[in-house]
């Protein structure tokens, strides 16, 4: 591998990496040489993911923590635990997220709050905890996993769309405040990716054919499609990229 993309000796925490996109991002970062802290809400699922990845890369390089990303105290303790286990963080991927499909007229305010806290507030909470140490050391990369809903609005996911739009601007706000301390903060906005979150959409023939027609690449994205861009944004190769959100969507957001 080119030294430009070599992450050997750098520790990465990937939130929501017990499964789905986050797990593929952790795998990509591990393949590039990073020491990994896997994470989920459910400790057993995070530990199972750790055991699986450690069987490929060794126990020394693969660790796991579990905490609720919506809880300010949990986020602080979780980042401290990650650093105690794996060393100071050089890379944080804010990936944990949920979706809730209900039209705005019927949306319970408690569900609105839960989505905003999980998909937006979490990046502020975990990001700020990780960034304090990164800023002291003068180096760090934060990648916020947005969505095509950052820019578009599908009916019935209004809270998700609002959170992901906010996450793009939080990415800009973090870069505006922390770039001078040697941090790069960027976003990746995936298109429709086949995971547990989207399984019901994959199984819906009407939605499935809408996606294939709406995506110039004529396919669903895979979790691996997102890993390369995240490795690049985690590496020295992207050191002058800051506050940007890059769409990885098979061209979905460039056609009407
Ligand atoms: P999954 O539902 O497959 O996985 C979600 C992950 O987030 C799990 O590891 C889960 O942990 C964790 N998580 C959820 N809530 C919390 C919480 N409160 N505290 C801690 N961890 C939590 O999702 P995807 O892999 O599909 O999505 C990952 C990210 O990518 C999300 O931010 C999503 O919005 C975004 N995205 C997904 C797209 C897609 O098409 N799939 C498209 C665009 C963006 P646990 O296993 O313990 O529940």
Automatic annotation (TrEMBL):
It holds the Pfam family adh_short_C2. Its EC number is 1.1.1.47. Keywords: Oxidoreductase. It comes from the Bacteria. The keyword Oxidoreductase applies. The keyword Oxidoreductase applies. GO terms for molecular function: glucose 1-dehydrogenase [NAD(P)+] activity. Residues 10-191 form the Ketoreductase domain. Belongs to the short-chain dehydrogenases/reductases (SDR) family. This is Glucose 1-dehydrogenase. The lineage of its organism: Bacteria, Bacillati, Actinomycetota, Actinomycetes, Micrococcales.
